[in-house]
Amino acid sequence: MKDDLAFGNSESFNSGDNIADPRPGSLQTPTDRMSIHQDDEEFGAIPAPEHLGNEDTMLKLGFIEELKGLGINELVNLPQLVVVGDQSSGKSSVLQAITRLPFPVDDGLCTRFPTEVSLQRAPAKSLELSIAKPVRAFDVLSQTAAQKKWVDRQSARIDDFNTRWQGQNAQGLEFITIITEARTAIMGDSLEAGQQARKANVAQSKKNMLSDATLRIVQKGPGEINITIIDMPGLVSSTHAAHRMAKALVDHYISNPRSIVLAVAHPANVETQDIFEIIATIQNWKNRVIGVITKCDKIEEGGDDWVHKAIKNDESDVTFDRYLSYGWLALRNLSPVERRAKTDDNFRDKMEEKLFQQRIWTNLDRPGQLGIKNLKAALTKMHNEHVTRSIPELIPEIKMRLDNDKKNIEGLGSPRITSESQMNCLINIATKYSLHAADAIDGHNDRLPINNAELKIRKIVRDALDDFRDRMQLDYEERFNCNRPAFILESEDEETWENSILKNKYLAEIGRCINDNRGKEMADEVNTAVLRSLWIELTPNWRLQTKRLIQSLVHSIGKAVEFLLAAICPDKSLQINIKNLLDEDKIAVAKHANHELDLLLHDEKSGLIITLNTWNLERLKEHRDNRMRHMLAILDRIKRRDKDLVTAQVNSWFARHTRIQAIFTTHDKLASYYDIGMRRFMDNVCHQVCERHLLGRKSPLRTFAPDLVTKRFEGNEEALRKIAGENKNQLEERKRLEDSHALLRRAMQKANQYCLSIGVQDMGL
């Protein structure tokens, strides 16, 4: 819809060129042209309906008008009456008949932008004019640079128009000139004579066929009814260049659930009129639409049967599917000849009254649905009832919007314009951050600002270390056959035992290493390089397991930082800036943790196999005893014999097979030392990698503290501004919220005054 209403990029027009100044004392009004200084009687003014003259009604309508005057309709949906119809449906004539203002008809002057006419009963007659700037046209995301330039010029023209007419009473001035000047301010059409100007005007008109800027006319007088009507540009065929823009404007207004619609149709075939498609799209259309049929003097007896059915508005008539709660009304428009004759409204009303005295109309037995007087009465009744229904919902909505704006403003925090305010903001956040981060590290989860698993970093670290320990233990058990037999003897024949034992790949690997490292040792000994070589080959898997641990904890710390910042800092932009700052510390601490791992692994791979733990000796004996029990059990299953005899056989076999004995001895030494070295390494990872680095003083969970913030940013205003300053979007959002909050607060003051006036205390205030 925004694209439909965007403006073109043509040259601007000076709204003041060759335009007569219509203010008092400056405009020469021709006596032979229609003006608006005549008495109400001359226009055939009618008394306001009784239900619009009471104090309660005046208070309601006055309250809505005051809200409109504040501009609150840009924030909440206000009750409004919208006039919609096809082009050439007689819509302008209907508006003229209701308001008694001589709107131009058939010249396109007043159909290119919405016109809001507010009729108000007052002791003295007056006419006030202003233009509300377009809202959707200012959406810079959908505008080219040239379009933005055009909108800026339009804004200047509107400002000039409003300045000229502020506080002025246009009563008695030539209305057509006022409308022309308003058209020029909104659309930029130049009145300057000359072929070049006309060419420019045509080009401009093609690109800026419609606008959502609104001409606002307030007419006051003792004979006025209290009602506000918004006249929309006429709907045109789908092949017309302005079709999308016109429909977009209409959709914008009728999408307001608090709008009611005066639908203007004419006697032609309903299938050719877009207004009926529009009506069908309106939610609850039967109760929100009142219909008017113009040009009823063009209906021939026996023709246009749908018009007569509409006037009857019989809900029980199955052949009529356009029933409206407020009905359809019939009008007679002035003909072009009558308009050119400068006839007054009395003439119009008399001709209309004469028409509806004809038999085809009297036979309908619906006198209350015929003529402008009945239309005015029906409109004001509908409008008043609609306003009465809307206000009880409207006031709580204003309060809710006010509370939301207040909450959003509080969420932005204090303005961060100066270096001092930026530093104070960071220190305040850092104070909260450091306290809660310390609680998270120490495991005081009950003190955390939110109950979130991602923030419980001590539990996360403990769980990760337990998983690390279990995976390391599984590797150890897999490598050294701790929970299952390392080999199976297939026969009691001793000649097969060596092959059965060496089927275990780890035992075979030890055998190859012993053979590869043979030196000056005795036949029943093993070179000392064997243990060192095998030990060095085992530690690379420790690196993989520990790097996985570090990577997991670094990620968890980053998530904890993110959730903690979100809990204590509502400003999303500030959250991101601080998180980006702490991400640098996260990267650094991960680097330090990996470096510490390298040092630990370097020590393990140095070849120094030493421990002060005597448990090593106990584990050696345990491995030997387990192996002997395993071999005896297998041989006993193969053939049951005397246990002492079998034990002697196995010991004898080992004495003869020194190679296998050396393999088992090396295996047992390596396994017992691996168990001790693994536990030592895991403890070092826990203390030196995790606690010293990942959770230490340089951890991102500790580096955002008040003293460190002061040290880091004091005297560096540019760095401080980048992290804590408000960007352009934030400043604009703050201003938008503050302006909206101010408007809503004033609206609530009006609402309080209104409720006190009618003696109501429970309307959501």
UniProtKB/TrEMBL annotation:
<keyword id="KW-0342">GTP-binding</keyword>
<dbReference type="InterPro" id="IPR001401">
    <property type="entry name" value="Dynamin_GTPase"/>
</dbReference>
<dbReference type="InterPro" id="IPR022812">
    <property type="entry name" value="Dynamin"/>
</dbReference>
<feature type="domain" description="Dynamin-type G">
    <location>
        <begin position="75"/>
        <end position="392"/>
    </location>
</feature>
<dbReference type="GO" id="GO:0005525">
    <property type="term" value="F:GTP binding"/>
</dbReference>
<dbReference type="GO" id="GO:0000266">
    <property type="term" value="P:mitochondrial fission"/>
</dbReference>
<keyword id="KW-0175">Coiled coil</keyword>
<dbReference type="GO" id="GO:0005874">
    <property type="term" value="C:microtubule"/>
</dbReference>
<dbReference type="InterPro" id="IPR020850">
    <property type="entry name" value="GED_dom"/>
</dbReference>
<dbReference type="InterPro" id="IPR027417">
    <property type="entry name" value="P-loop_NTPase"/>
</dbReference>
<feature type="domain" description="GED">
    <location>
        <begin position="663"/>
        <end position="759"/>
    </location>
</feature>
<dbReference type="GO" id="GO:0048312">
    <property type="term" value="P:intracellular distribution of mitochondria"/>
</dbReference>
<protein>
    <submittedName>
        <fullName>Uncharacterized protein</fullName>
    </submittedName>
</protein>
<dbReference type="InterPro" id="IPR030381">
    <property type="entry name" value="G_DYNAMIN_dom"/>
</dbReference>
<dbReference type="Pfam" id="PF00350">
    <property type="entry name" value="Dynamin_N"/>
</dbReference>
<dbReference type="GO" id="GO:0006897">
    <property type="term" value="P:endocytosis"/>
</dbReference>
<dbReference type="GO" id="GO:0016020">
    <property type="term" value="C:membrane"/>
</dbReference>
<feature type="region of interest" description="Disordered">
    <location>
        <begin position="1"/>
        <end position="31"/>
    </location>
</feature>
<dbReference type="GO" id="GO:0016559">
    <property type="term" value="P:peroxisome fission"/>
</dbReference>
<dbReference type="InterPro" id="IPR045063">
    <property type="entry name" value="Dynamin_N"/>
</dbReference>
<feature type="coiled-coil region">
    <location>
        <begin position="720"/>
        <end position="747"/>
    </location>
</feature>
<keyword id="KW-0547">Nucleotide-binding</keyword>
<dbReference type="GO" id="GO:0003924">
    <property type="term" value="F:GTPase activity"/>
</dbReference>
<dbReference type="Pfam" id="PF01031">
    <property type="entry name" value="Dynamin_M"/>
</dbReference>
<dbReference type="InterPro" id="IPR000375">
    <property type="entry name" value="Dynamin_stalk"/>
</dbReference>
<dbReference type="GO" id="GO:0005739">
    <property type="term" value="C:mitochondrion"/>
</dbReference>
<dbReference type="GO" id="GO:0008017">
    <property type="term" value="F:microtubule binding"/>
</dbReference>
